[in-house]
Amino acid sequence: MKRINLYISIVLIAICSLSSSCTKWLDLKPQDGLVEQDFWQTKEHVRSAVNGIYISLVSSNLVSSLFMHGEMRTNMVELTAFTTQMHEEYRFANLMSTNTFTNWGDFYRIINYCNNVIDNAPGVKEVDPTLLQADLDAYIGEALTIRAWMYFYLARIWGDVPLKLNYTQSDDDNLMIAKSSQEEVLAAVVADLIRAEGMVKETFATTIAADKGKVTKYTVNALLADVYLWQDDYSKALDACEMIVKSGKFELVSGDPSTWLNVLFAVGNSSEGIFELQYDRQQLNPFHNLFIQNRIYAVGGTVYESLYMIDESDPDNFDVRGDRGSLDASTGQIYKYQGINRQQRKTLEESYTHWMVYRYADVLLMKAEALNGLNEGQEAIDLIYEVRERANALDLNDLTPTEDDQATITTFLVAERAREFAYEGKRWFDVLRHARRNNYARIDLITNMVMEYAPADRQQSMLGKYRDPNSHYLPIYFTELQMNKALVQNPFYNN
Amino acid sequence: MKIKYIEKIMYWTLGVWMLMVQGACVKEDFTQTTDVTPNIATFLKNSEDFTVFYEAVVKAGTAAYLDAWGTYTVFAPNNVAMDTYIRSLGKSKVADLTDEEAKLLVTQHIVTDTVSTGNFKDGKITKNSVAGLFITTSVRNVDGRSEILLNKESVIILPNQRTGNGLVHGVDKVFTPITRTLMEEIQANPELSLFAEALQETGLDATLNIVEEEQYFSVLAVSNAVFAQRGINSLADLRDKYSHTGNPKNPNDSLYMHMAYHIVPDLKYVSDLMLQNSHVTKVNNEIILVKVDGERVLINEEEWLGNIELGAEIDRSISDNTTKNGVLHQLKDNIFIKARFPFPIYWDPADQPEIRIAGVYGRANLSVAKGFLKDVSWGGAESAAIDYESLLGANMIGAVYNDLLIVNLRTAVIPWIELKTPVIVKGRYKVWISWRTIDSQQGSNTIDVYVNGAQLSRSIVNGEYRNRTLPARELEALGYKMHLAGSPSGANNYNTKMVGIVDINSTDRHTIRLETKTNRNTPFRMDMIHFIPVDMEQIYPVFDINGNAVYP
């Protein structure tokens, strides 16, 4: 009998070991973090999720790639010996879908953080009644704005992209999303921004850094103006600019050479700033590395001489944005993010000059662009001069357009934007936006610029490619195509 | 008994359990290869649109090596292109081709290197095809759509297909074999009939018919219409205008030289011409100058003594025609050998474009790192810098343009420095170098001067002061002069020495090199370099600190 018991117990153990071991001790939650099911319970959760979005803007590669996409295809920069084959392919119009720079992962990751807040934050109100409706709206508005901002970039860099407007929780979600056209994406961006406009705050009433570093009504309107300009909707763009101008909250900082760089960039959050990504000692910007240490980008060969120009007769007459403003002519380095003032430079540890998303000068020049589109030439010219005079732009590059000469005003405006926003990641988009209007009536803006930096032995092929509008948008990265069968490659890269 | 029965069940259960626990030890079918990417031949075979080309590959006997280890690029014509080609030969299928035909067809589409579209430039790709054909690449824009064009005829329809041993690019047309020489290509074009006649007249046609390995020419041809612009309508006109010996076959005859001036003895596509600013021609010591103005490529456009001489533009749309022994371009205007008389160059070597762009020229000091100046290079460590100095102290004042180039010229720091001069017309020149003397307890360095690699007869000792007692003409006879005007406060400290006489053989930019074998810690402070034709006045003009020439 005893033996039988022994056998029975062996069999029991065997059965036990075969059946799966679903016991509680294997099912513990992490001790140092929250899981999804326990999140979205309190207003602090919402707040930290929104802060997480902001942190993702500065801690990811986003800003380096914004710089790259905005400047790589322009005459503002020159590549140095530290660059790779991939940089050269991008710069010299030889992009292929295997080039990692064509990966849009960073943008969609941030979009998903936003989608998470937009989808899940409203539910918190039911669980935590202390969450005020106004605060909840502001949080969602901020997420909507940043999502719109990301899609705005996607539409300008890749053209047609998939629109994903809800939160992706796991790989089980349907991710086979086809592309939406650029117009549809821009329309979605406008819809998000209009919705956000009524939700976000005008001021956080805490610190200046909060008002400049987080999304406010003014951020939303600056973005709206920009998007409207891409849609060639001048009157709406004008309204959005007017909203900011009339608020009276912003002004151009002084163009005094001893303070301009310091106040506007080195210190930041000036009265000119509308939305700036807030780097600090804990979170340095990537530019010391990109421009100084292992410098990939240097100042374009013609920038100082032909864009800002030099007054040979009077050394004291100079554009404050030129030498020791945006660039250091004697070393060919990009100076905007390095300078404390005209003489002193920041060290690596101090390299936390903010990334300007929008500042008041941008609003003034966007307003000028809208007015020019509405045939209000004189008002547009006045605004351009307002920005020029602040910086003491030289008469040498004053095109003196007449008020009914829309084309010259456009050329003047594009050049002035290049001077004003040098190395702020805007140049390519400015040129593209103006070139593509009226069925690419001003393609010369692109081809003339390309000719300035194209090497002699690639000039003709580069020009040939840039005459194809599809080449102005990047290919879809090859892994995206492999994983998402609904995507179709940009036709330019198929042949 | 019952117990034993139960015991049996127990044993069975135990046995089954043991089996289950031990797991399913079945032999697994492991993949033995490390890579499943097909090689080129397999890729073509399994493709939808390149099967006819694959048949040709098999027929040509190249299938085996296109499936073997190596690096290849294959420009594969699609099936439609292959059918069109075979039909143009009067045949109906690949099997009808002779082995020779198949082999030529296939090998002219293969390059033994991996060339992706990312490597394409204007002009030819780095390697010829196995059959020896150049493959040129360009981009054509049709109705706002850009496409990559090979040999000006085939469009890439499927780029950069990566296979195990290289790349496949699908193209829509079989490459036409190149059968003509340069001369035959010129003769085939009725527009160039006068140019062809003139070549025959001078006997240069024989040269342009030679097909030899590694010997190529580039011809800048002139059409009848362009000749007519200049009033030349027939060979007789040409002969009247140029042939001064009566025998155009004589290489010293001006007609021969005029025609030979249109031939560059090297393979230069337009993009290659653009890369350098001067190219030698078939005429001894005569070069063509190239200037790039946006998209326009201009031959012999230059500023000469303050005047702009208009050049001839290359007609890019009909240039870059590949032939067996070179490439044919066409000009929109004729080019001429220019009779130029030597004239003096008074050169401030610190006047470099990069220093001007930096905005410091005549204004501020600048430490110049290696590689910063395109036209100046020097020896020594990577960190060895030279100095541009413009803010001069009282005992320095006098330097022309108020600046000096300071080079720590000594064997331990910068043993040599090379500078590219401005364009010097061919002729015989005296070379003068002026510097600010430095008398140091360290002693002086002896500096040798070379022009185009040939050492000049006299060296400089940088501690040598100018003799201030001798009259100017006697000083000149000794090979020294004073190059400054007025009496600036530092004038006594400047010296100018004639370092030798040099024969400049071609009108071009040349190289001057300063080199020392001594190692004293006394830098060389260079002010100016003069190239003055031997038969001209050597002392005047002198210069003031603003760079103005002053005559007596």
From TrEMBL, chain B:
Signal peptide as annotated in the record: none
**Record-linked PROSITE patterns:** FAS1 (PS50213)
Per its UniProt record, what SUPFAM superfamilies does this chain match? FAS1 domain
Residues of the FAS1 domain: 37-175, 179-335
What the entry lists under PANTHER family is as follows: FI19380P1, PERIOSTIN-RELATED
Q: What is this protein called?
A: DUF5108 domain-containing protein
Q: What species is given as this protein's source?
A: Sphingobacterium alkalisoli
